[in-house]
Amino acid sequence: MALAMVAEIPGLSREEYESVVTQVNASGSPAGALFHAGGPVEGGYRVVEVWRDREAADAFYSSALYQGATAGLATQPEVVLTWSVHGIDDGSGWHAAE
Asked: What is the average pLDDT across 15-30?
């Protein structure tokens, strides 16, 4: 089942955020990624992601690609909320998540 996640990254700057997302998406979206949005909040950045399933998210976050892209950050993302996703509208209309 699809999985949504909200993460907080204290102290992250716009430049650091853009560096990480540019690196991890250099060859296209990570396998199993369905949605990503990130933006500044007081004291850092907040990221919302939807993954095909928990296994895809776990594989990405434990990958050498992600670990290398975030190695220089002062703090790592803290997942503050997760939930199962039933439906997604990715701009092409609503559909049930697989």
From this structure: 95
